[in-house]
Amino acid sequence: MRFDIITIFPEMFEAIFSGGVVNRAVEKGLIEIHVHNLRDFTTDKHKQVDDRPYGGEEGMVFKPEPIFAAVERIRWSPQTPVYLLSPQGKKLDFRLAEELSGHSQVILICGRYEGVDERVSENLATDEISIGDYILTGGELAAMVVVDAAVRFIPGVVGKEDSVRHDSFFEGRLDYPQYTRPRDFRGMKVPPVLFSGDHKKIDAWRRKQALEKTRQRRPDLLERRTLSPEDKKRLDPIQDERKRR
Ligand code: 4GX
After folding, report:
1. Which pLDDT value is given to residue 167?
2. Is-contact 61 113, C-beta < 8 A?
3. Is-catalytic flag, 24?
């Protein structure tokens, strides 16, 4: 799988992609990340990528020509999706991240300033992606988030083969709590069940913890999934408690 990122700040990506899991995936040949400087696709001597918006108002807007030129040069096939990172986009979640990982090439356009000429989103981008309801100073961090979340779904990128599929969001719940040594840290103790050696009991405890935390913090996740009879039983005492109040 190959990511092509179009940006006016290519150096920003080195900091993130030169270490960790993403870097290892590149070294293993599982993914390629190509960062393109938008200025290289300008034709004027000032390498101008932006201009004042028609209709007045403050600020600057990215011109369409260099972006179209970049995508036309980079794109392998009409099937390659082209995404504009923007607060107006479809919200990124694990489903969208997995969907992206199924393409052999994905192009990401990072805008800055007041935005990008609307003809880019109307006639060039397949779709717009947002990483959340807040305003960033540019699309670069959003593109990094998209790449990071998507590469985890490529087989071989994350250590254990199917650990991605066991990830909490896949199962519609948050994670259970994790502990490591020491057993007693300044009087804060690890739940004894975890060193009981009884794996059935440990599993049941973890499931209950995960379900309780999800019920408390992200009830929306539970609503979208059908609970097994065992999980219902695990949650019932909590619901009962609520009814009594
Ligand atoms: N999730 N921003 C993009 C400039 C811009 C505006 C409109 C295209 C269209 C963001 C987000 C985000 C701020 C990146 C505005 N580009 N991107 N930038 N949230 O806030 O993705």
Report:
1. 75
2. yes
3. no
139 and 35 Cβ atoms separated by less than 8 Å: no
User: Would you give the distance in Å from CA 234 to the centre of its chain?
Assistant: 31
**Which residue among 65, 114, 171, 231 is the active-site one?**
114
pLDDT tens digits, one per residue of 81-100? 999 999 999 999 999 999 99
Alpha-carbon dihedral angle through residues 115, 118, 122, 124, given to the nearest 10 degrees: -60
- Phi, psi at residue 70, to the nearest 5°? -65, -50
Query: Do 132 and 59 contact (CB within 8 A), yes or no?
Result: no
Q: Do residues 94 and 169 lie in contact, with contact meaning Cβ atoms separated by under 8 Å?
A: yes
Question: Angle, to 10 degrees, between the axis of helix 140-151 and the axis of helix 94-101?
Answer: 80
The Cα 50–Cα 112 span in angstroms is 9
**Sign of the Cα pseudo-torsion (41, 138, 119, 56, in order):** negative
| Whether the model pTM is above 0.85 | yes
Residue for token pair 């007041």? 114
Tokens of 120: 């880019």
Indicate which residue's Cα is closest to atom 7 of ligand 1. 115
Q: Is 112 in the pocket of ligand 1 (CB under 6 A)?
A: yes
Give the number of the atom of ligand 1 that is nearest the alpha carbon of residue 136.
Answer: 20
Q: Collapse the DSSP code of 43 into the 3-class scheme (helix H, G, I; strand E, B; otherwise coil) and give the result.
A: coil
Would the CB of 131 count as within 6 Å of ligand 1? yes
Select from 173, 168, 148 the least CA-distant residue to 158: 148
Catalytic residue among 65, 148, 167, 212: 167
- Note the pLDDT tens digit of each residue in 193-227: 999 999 999 999 999 999 999 999 999 999 877 78
